[in-house]
């Protein structure tokens, strides 16, 4: 069998030893940005040619599917706007690449992919990103950080990006918007496409083999049109650069040995020449089924401070494997002619469920506080007693969101100046709950952490929470001259939450601990009769008026400068922030406060001959900080914070066939700690990030690409935060990866191939370097291969 693998590798090596090519990964083609509070990014005809700056008015197609089609000029958008086209996604999506992997390569300011199921810590401009699917929010106040694990990337038509806070959208978009737009337009007549693919590790280990099958059916009629995409994916295990299987991610879960089903459906009806109704439905489910677990060491030594081996151990038996399900429904009504104005009304529903990997949880710190408060102060004795305060739990969350958005747009003239008014209102309700399911400790101990079975006990992962968001806005876009454009708006945002009475998880765990047979005798001797206490139901109510003001000026036919001020308004993850509080905590507007962000951007973009470039700088500030402490509880710190940086991109056509280019993004920030400005860590800020590429396009439409992604090392925050006892900052070691990928047009169909981490680099992603404990210091995948075939008929 090994000889066959060597032959396959030789053939693949021959295929990729063609001339290299470049395709710009920062496509600045015309985009439509929905100027409504729903932040639905409208669609436009997108070119697959070399990225360029287009300064003409965008023409809205009659069958835009992502919400209100509000025409604007790209030259009038005083913020960094990017459209990633279907062609760019296609070339990146071969093998087991996720949407997070693809976007990290193509969006300069977006954080590097985590390499796990989660996109936790993936920020833009040092702030959280609001992810949307067809204009419907994927990001909630309660986030499972799996937004980029929501749909198969082969089902994406494009990705629309707006970086920086925007008051047009309101709550939740402090770092910017990323709208994932699914395929929907089918033209006239039937459409059919079949997709098959395989992926493997460098050594073609049988455990690493994965495969993908997909089918598309669609039909476009005179008045009715529809499309259905179904993709099934079966991923194998991941192996590091030395050929060793990578241990499971017990904190956020991973995609090893996972089956997934992704469904994208759309149906549209043109009611009249000016009215249409569009329905978009997506469904995604993945579930892990693996025989491998983490190495906790002899006697679970890792849980008591020993360094983990990070080996994957065969023989795992988890009763309830990790999974993710997401369902979204988006119904949109558009009327392009209501007394000279256009109207869009969108109703949407989303339900998301997720289960995590079973993991041990220690209540030693909390138990020590109780012992000491009751007179036991000998440190050796306390440490011995609290070593028994270990529990095994498995978390499962359910988030349900529904909303209604309405917006109108009116074109008029004021003092002879062409003006576009956009105005509207929206409402969204989010219900979230999270439960920890207890696992049998004896079974877990006897198997050295490989077997997890429920014991019938449950714990609250924070209170059941309902969050209501109301918003209303008006925005005006004015062409002061044919070269000078300005935009100004105001939005009123109201956030209200209600939390149910709940018993904090550590209260329940302490009650079990002090009443266990191993401890109850000693606890009784010290007069400890611990009873879990509750946190009573509560509510918060906040509102904010937000402003935005921006301008752009056309210096030359090929050069544009812009500047923009906008405000963002968001809340901390209330349910997560309250998970670790103790009995008696009062939930009210004073104790759970929102965060306001002021954002400033300025920049230049241009295209001169065969060279296109963009350069922008940003600065944002807030009056509070949300962070994990060193014990991974969440806290909102009432202190000032500032983030600033620069990003740029460039592409150049060497010839009709050769293109080269790249991007760079530098972000830095600090928070105020007792009068000193301490550096923010890499969980919040993406370290220095750069990309580069070279592409060659063949006459028959085939192409080949070499691309690099580099992350700079940084230990400033780690050194700075030694002054902060609650710090969790860790140093980052830089790394660079190379990929070769391309497409070959066949007589029938198209072959896509990819070789990722071409040089078999041994490294850890930023996420695995900086989050959670030593058990999360997992290496990234070594060289992996992907090969797929797509045919339209």
Automatic annotation (TrEMBL):
Topologically, how does it sit relative to the membrane? Multi-pass membrane protein
Q: Which UniProt keywords apply?
A: Cell outer membrane, Membrane, Receptor, Signal, TonB box, Transmembrane, Transmembrane beta strand, Transport
Superkingdom of this protein's organism: Bacteria
The record's listing under Pfam families reads: Plug, TonB_dep_Rec_b-barrel
User: Start and end of every TonB-dependent receptor plug domain?
Assistant: 76-176
The segment(s) forming the TonB-dependent receptor-like beta-barrel domain are 269-758
Map out region (Disordered) in residue numbers.
236-256
Query: Subcellular location, in the record's words?
Result: Cell outer membrane
Q: Where is the signal peptide?
A: 1-22
The keyword Signal is assigned to this record: yes
| Classification via PANTHER family | FERRIC AEROBACTIN RECEPTOR, TONB-DEPENDENT OUTER MEMBRANE RECEPTOR
Family per similarity comment: Belongs to the TonB-dependent receptor family.
Q: What is this protein called?
A: TonB-dependent receptor
Organism listed in the record: Psychrobacter proteolyticus
**Species lineage, top-down?**
Bacteria, Pseudomonadati, Pseudomonadota, Gammaproteobacteria, Moraxellales
């Amino acid at each position: 069998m090994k000889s066959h693998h060597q032959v396959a590798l030789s053939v693949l090596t021959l295929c990729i030893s063609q001339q290299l090519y470049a395709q710009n990964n920062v496509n600045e083609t015309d985009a439509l940005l929905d100027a409504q509070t729903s932040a639905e990014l409208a669609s436009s005809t997108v070119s697959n040619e070399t990225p360029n700056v287009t300064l003409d008015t965008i023409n809205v197609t009659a069958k835009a599917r992502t919400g209100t089609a509000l025409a604007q000029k790209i030259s009038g958008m005083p913020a960094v706007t990017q459209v990633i086209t279907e062609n760019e996604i296609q070339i990146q999506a071969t093998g087991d690449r996720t949407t997070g992997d693809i976007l990290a390569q193509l969006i300069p300011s977006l954080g590097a992919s985590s390499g796990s199921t989660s996109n936790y810590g993936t920020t833009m401009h040092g702030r959280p990103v609001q992810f949307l699917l067809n204009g419907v929010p994927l990001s909630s106040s309660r986030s499972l950080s799996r937004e980029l694990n929501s749909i198969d990337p082969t089902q994406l038509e494009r990705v629309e990006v707006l970086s920086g806070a925007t008051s047009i959208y309101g709550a939740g978009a402090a770092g910017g918007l990323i709208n994932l737009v699914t395929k929907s337009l089918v033209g006239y007549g039937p459409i059919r496409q079949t997709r098959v693919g395989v992926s493997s590790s460098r050594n073609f280990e049988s455990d690493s083999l994965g495969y993908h099958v997909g089918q598309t059916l669609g039909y476009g009629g005179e008045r009715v049109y529809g499309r259905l995409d179904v993709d099934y994916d079966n991923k194998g295990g991941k192996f590091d650069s030395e050929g060793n299987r990578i241990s499971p991610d017990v904190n956020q879960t991973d995609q090893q040995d996972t089956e997934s089903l992704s469904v994208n459906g759309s149906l549209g009806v043109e009611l009249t020449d000016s009215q249409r109704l569009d329905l978009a439905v997506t469904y995604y489910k993945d579930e892990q089924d693996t025989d491998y677990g983490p190495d906790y060491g002899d006697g679970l030594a890792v849980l008591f401070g020993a360094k983990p081996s990070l080996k994957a151990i065969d023989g795992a038996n988890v009763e309830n494997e990790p999974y993710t399900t997401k369902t979204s429904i988006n119904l949109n009504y558009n009327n392009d002619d209501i007394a000279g104005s256009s109207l869009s009304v969108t109703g949407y529903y989303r339900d998301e469920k997720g289960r995590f990997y079973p993991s041990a949880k220690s209540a030693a710190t909390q138990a020590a506080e109780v012992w000491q408060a009751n007179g036991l102060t000998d440190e050796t004795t306390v440490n011995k007693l609290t070593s028994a305060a270990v529990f095994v739990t498995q978390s499962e969350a359910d988030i349900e969101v529904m909303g209604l958005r309405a917006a109108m747009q009116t074109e008029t003239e004021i003092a002879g100046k062409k003006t576009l008014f956009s105005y509207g209102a929206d409402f969204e309700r989010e219900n979230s709950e999270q439960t920890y399911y207890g696992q049998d400790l004896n079974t877990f101990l006897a198997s050295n952490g490989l077997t997890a079975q429920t014991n019938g006990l449950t714990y609250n992962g924070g209170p059941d929470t309902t969050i209501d968001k109301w918003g209303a806005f008006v925005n005006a876009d004015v062409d002061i001259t044919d070269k000078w454009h300005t935009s100004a708006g105001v939005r009123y945002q109201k956030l209200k939450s209600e939390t149910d009475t709940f018993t904090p998880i550590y209260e329940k765990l302490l009650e079990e601990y002090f009443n266990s047979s191993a401890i109850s005798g000693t606890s009784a001797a010290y007069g400890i009769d611990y009873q879990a206490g509750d946190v009573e139901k509560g509510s918060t109510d906040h509102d904010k008026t937000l402003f935005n003001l921006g301008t752009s000026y056309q210096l030359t036919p090929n050069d544009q400068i812009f500047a923009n001020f906008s405000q963002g308004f968001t809340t901390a993850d209330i349910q997560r922030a309250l998970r670790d509080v103790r009995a008696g905590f009062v939930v009210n507007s004073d104790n759970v406060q929102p965060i306001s962000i002021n954002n400033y951007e300025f920049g230049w973009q241009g295209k001169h001959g065969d060279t296109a470039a963009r350069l922008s700088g940003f600065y944002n500030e807030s009056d509070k900080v949300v962070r994990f402490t060193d014990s991974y509880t969440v806290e909102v710190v009432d202190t000032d914070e500032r983030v600033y940086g620069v990003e740029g991109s460039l592409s150049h056509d060497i010839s009709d066939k050769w293109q080269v280019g790249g991007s760079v993004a530098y972000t830095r920030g600090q928070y105020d700690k007792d009068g000193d400005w301490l550096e923010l860590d890499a969980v919040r800020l993406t370290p220095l990030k750069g990309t580069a590429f070279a592409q060659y396009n063949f006459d028959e439409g085939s192409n080949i690409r070499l691309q690099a992604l580099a992350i700079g090392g940084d230990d400033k925050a780690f050194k700075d935060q030694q002054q902060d006892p609650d710090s969790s900052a860790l140093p980052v070691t830089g790394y660079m990866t190379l990929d070769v990928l391309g497409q070959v047009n066949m007589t029938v169909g198209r072959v896509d191939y990819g070789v990722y981490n071409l040089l078999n680099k041994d490294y850890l992603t930023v996420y695995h370097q900086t989050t959670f404990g030593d058990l999360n210091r997992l290496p990234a995948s070594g060289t992996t291969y992907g090969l797929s075939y797509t045919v339209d008929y």
